[in-house]
């Protein structure tokens, strides 16, 4: 796509979903650093997410995590979000934090624990009915630490059984996104370790089961854009959990570690039709801001996704196809790199002005005084964090 107005039109309709947990305190197993002005309630997390949308114009949804965002009235929570100009996005489940889940949740050898985990997943669909959410995000920490600890194959049977029960419960306009992860917290075997396992479970169940690619969940050196191209071709890419990593599941700002990889991924999304609304690919962020300011970290991340998308949209597809067809390796690579090396910041600044926004979202947010205001307002009470 070379016509800049077409590129701008495509960028204008992009929707990047931010995670409620990115606004709370977070850290590592060593330390959670408390920051000032951190939200104390699910409503305050939504307030912060609304700021990201206010200054970027392309972050209209916020994902929730249950029970971290548990409230008595989810219809009221959805209305609260709408009043602030955003909507509730994916509902994320949590079957990893209870003592009961030490040996697994839906794959636990104990049927009572499996039932408890399944009940939580089904409750999350009840919540989706109330919030109007389309996507249920399923991530299982299930796995084993030692060879022989449990039967790998039986655990797959248990996983399949639970997924089928959740699938059955989904409404017509709902779907689940099954997230895979190579390791952590399980260190020997994870029950959904890679896209192949997720894909196989999803294919068996049908169109309402889709794979979600968390960019931090692969072995080093994995060609993630290949996975994206493959899943899109099969109609099985449900969305992304975007973040970046230097080592493992670092949950750093997307585009921080490897902007070129993000561009390559977004190119395959565009190439495979994943950018079209009807394909339903959800662009979600799954990040934690341990040492940087959180709202600003989210704004920066949204901008990084936008920049990679703009570059992907700028690839001269005709020139690329011609070079590929003639076997001109260096010309093809050159066309690709030209798009990547384009400075798209002026185009995005222009787009924001056309959208009635400040061309520099970070500067506008900083000048707004929002942070100083919430630091003052949120002085008392318990700040939200992982598990709150
Ligand atoms: C865990 O590694 C996954 O990325 C999940 O998406 C998880 O639910 C999320 O990171 C919140 O902890
Ligand atoms: Zn994730
Ligand atoms: Zn993760």
UniProtKB/TrEMBL annotation:
GO terms (molecular function) for this protein are: L-rhamnose isomerase activity; metal ion binding
- Give the EC number(s) under which this enzyme is classified: 5.3.1.-, 5.3.1.14
Q: Does the keyword Isomerase apply?
A: yes
Q: Which Gene3D superfamilies does the record cross-reference, listed alphabetically?
A: Divalent-metal-dependent TIM barrel enzymes
Q: What is this protein called?
A: L-rhamnose isomerase
The record, for InterPro entries, names: L-rhamnose_isomerase, Rhamnose_iso-rel, Xyl_isomerase-like_sf
Give the NCBIfam families listed for this entry: RhaI_grampos
Q: Which keywords belong to this entry? A: Isomerase, Manganese, Metal-binding
Please list the GO biological process terms of this entry. Answer: L-lyxose metabolic process; rhamnose catabolic process
């Amino acid at each position: 796509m070379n016509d800049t107005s077409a590129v701008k039109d495509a960028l204008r309709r992009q929707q990047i979903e931010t995670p409620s947990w990115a606004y709370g305190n977070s850290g590592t197993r060593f330390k959670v650093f408390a920051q000032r002005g951190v939200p104390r309630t699910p409503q305050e997390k939504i307030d912060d997410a609304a700021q990201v949308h206010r200054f970027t114009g392309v972050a209209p949804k916020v994902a929730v995590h249950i029970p971290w965002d548990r409230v008595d009235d989810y219809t009221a929570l959805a209305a609260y979000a709408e009043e602030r100009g955003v909507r509730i996005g994916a509902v994320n489940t949590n079957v990893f934090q209870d003592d009961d889940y030490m040996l697994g949740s839906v794959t636990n050898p104990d049927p009572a624990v499996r039932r408890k985990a399944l009940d939580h997943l089904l409750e999350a669909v009840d919540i989706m009915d109330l919030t109007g959410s389309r996507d249920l995000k399923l991530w299982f920490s299930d796995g084993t630490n030692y060879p022989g600890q449990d039967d790998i194959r039986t655990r797959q049977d248990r996983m399949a059984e639970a997924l089928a029960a959740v699938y059955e419960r989904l409404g017509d306009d709902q779907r689940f996104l099954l997230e895979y992860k190579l390791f952590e917290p399980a260190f020997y075997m994870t029950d959904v370790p890679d896209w192949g396992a997720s894909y196989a479970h999803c294919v068996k169940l049908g169109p309402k089961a889709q794979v979600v690619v968390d960019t931090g969940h692969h072995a080093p050196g994995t060609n993630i854009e290949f996975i994206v191209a493959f899943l899109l071709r099969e109609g099985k890419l449900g969305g992304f959990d975007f973040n970046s990593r230097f080592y493992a599941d670092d949950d750093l700002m997307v585009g921080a570690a490897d902007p070129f990889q993000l561009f390559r991924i977004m190119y395959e999304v565009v190439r495979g039709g994943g950018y079209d609304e009807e394909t339903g690919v959800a662009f979600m962020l799954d990040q934690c801001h341990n040492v940087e300011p959180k709202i600003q970290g989210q704004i920066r991340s949204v901008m990084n996704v936008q920049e990679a998308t703009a570059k992907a949209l700028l690839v001269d597809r005709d020139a690329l196809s011609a070079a590929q067809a003639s076997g001109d390796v260096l010309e093809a690579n050159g066309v690709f790199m030209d798009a990547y090396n384009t400075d798209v910041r002026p185009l995005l600044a222009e787009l924001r002005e056309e959208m009635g926004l400040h061309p520099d979202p970070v500067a506008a947010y900083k000048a707004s005084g929002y942070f100083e205001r919430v630091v003052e307002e949120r002085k008392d009470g318990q700040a939200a964090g992982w598990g709150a």
